[in-house]
Structures are given as structure tokens and as C-alpha cells.
Amino acid sequence: MQFDLTVLLPYLGVLRDGVILTAQACVLALVGSVVTGALVAIASTSASKPLRRIADVYVDIFRNVPFIVQMFFFYFGLPVLGLYIDAFTTGVVALSIAGGAFTSNVIRSGILAIDPGVIEAAQVFGLHKRTVFLKIVMPIALRTSIRPLGAVLVNLILTSSILSTITLNELTGSAKIVASDTFRPFEVYFVLLVVYAALTWSVSLAIGALHRRLNRDIVEVVS
């Protein structure tokens, strides 16, 4: 077999649209994961035992059930109850909920790692507990959790390939279409491999640079 990437030239637009759709789904899912994870982390660190229990159950369920099962439940199961959601929205919601279970542990660790003296100092100045949490605790927790959150984003990019199973033509779905049209699966999936590697590598580099920038003052103080 002769390796020939030129056969894919007429399909560059299809693959480009798949990359764009993957990027859109992952960005929205990251936002959803961070919001969901923050709420769950707040619940898991609260003084309320019921809230902590609910947070633990949520994390246990969505971390220990295969993502494809969760997604099929939303896409194929909910219509039985009269809830119809399009493939893109289903994918974003499923990724957000599943990602939130992992993000919650990241943010929770960031919250617990904060020096209690910082919180006590803020309270000495008469700041309300809610203000302390929203203005001091959460920003510090998110800043110190940049690298783990970056790992969550990389995982979202990789997991998004499963969205093709619900007829969403993201990157993997688009590649399947091209492979079936050209009968050149080797070239198609070689390009797919390279594109996914480039996406995740670029995200990792960007997250590393953002982490160094946000924590530059901490490094300077320590040094």
C-alpha cells in the first residue's frame, strides 16, 4: 500500500469543521466542569453533613461509571421520559457532569491546601465568610489548581472522541466519514492521531505557561 496524504486534500474542510466542533464542545465542557466542580467542592468542604454526603455520592457515581454509559443514558434514555436533547448539547452536558466529578477533587484539594492563617487574617478585618470564600479562598484554590485543571481539559479532549457514537461529527466523527468515503483508513487515522497529539500537546504547553505566570509571585517570594 502506498502512503498518500494527498487523497485527503478534498476533505480538509470536513476535518477542519470536526476540529472546530471538538474545540467548541471541549471549551464549553471545561466551563461546565469548573462550575460544577466548584459547587461540588464547596459542598464537600461545607459544615453540612448532608451536603458532604451528596457531593461524595455524585463524585463516586460519575467517576466510576464509564463515560459512554453516562452519555448513552442522556442521549437515548432521557427521551423515554420525554426529554429530547440534541447531540451537541448532550455531549457538552455529559462531558461537563463527568468532568465536574474530577474537577471537584482538584478544587477541593486546592481549598484544603490554603493556609488557615490567610482565612483568619481576612476574618480579622471583618470580612463576611461568603466574601472570604468568593474573593480569597476560591481564587487561590483555582490558581494553585491550574495544572490539574489542565489535565482535566486534556482528558476532555480525548474523551470527546466518544461523542461520535451519538452521531456528532466532531473530529473523530468527521474522520470516520472521510475514511468511509476514501477507503483510506490508514492515512485518515494517521492524521487523526497527529491532530489529537498536537491539540493535547498545545494545551499542555499553554497550561504550563499559564501556571508559571499566575504563580510567578509565589516563586519569587520563596526564592
TrEMBL record:
Q: Where in the cell is it found?
A: Cell inner membrane; Cell membrane
Chief localization: membrane
* Keyword Transmembrane carried by entry: yes
Sorted alphabetically, the keyword list is: Amino-acid transport, Cell membrane, Membrane, Transmembrane, Transmembrane helix, Transport
Q: Which InterPro entries match?
A: AA_ABC_transptr_permease_3TM (IPR010065), ArtM/GltK/GlnP/TcyL/YhdX-like (IPR043429), MetI-like (IPR000515), MetI-like_sf (IPR035906)
| TM spans (from-to) | 20-45, 57-77, 83-102, 148-168, 188-210
What CDD domains does the database record attribute to this sequence? TM_PBP2
Pfam families per record: BPD_transp_1
Q: Which residues form the ABC transmembrane type-1 domain?
A: 19-207
Write down the NCBIfam families for this protein, in alphabetical order. HEQRo_perm_3TM
* Record family assignment: Belongs to the binding-protein-dependent transport system permease family. HisMQ subfamily.
What functional role does this protein have?
A: Part of the binding-protein-dependent transport system for glutamine; probably responsible for the translocation of the substrate across the membrane.
User: Which protein are we looking at?
Assistant: ABC transmembrane type-1 domain-containing protein
Upper classification of the source organism reads:
Bacteria, Pseudomonadati, Pseudomonadota, Betaproteobacteria, Neisseriales
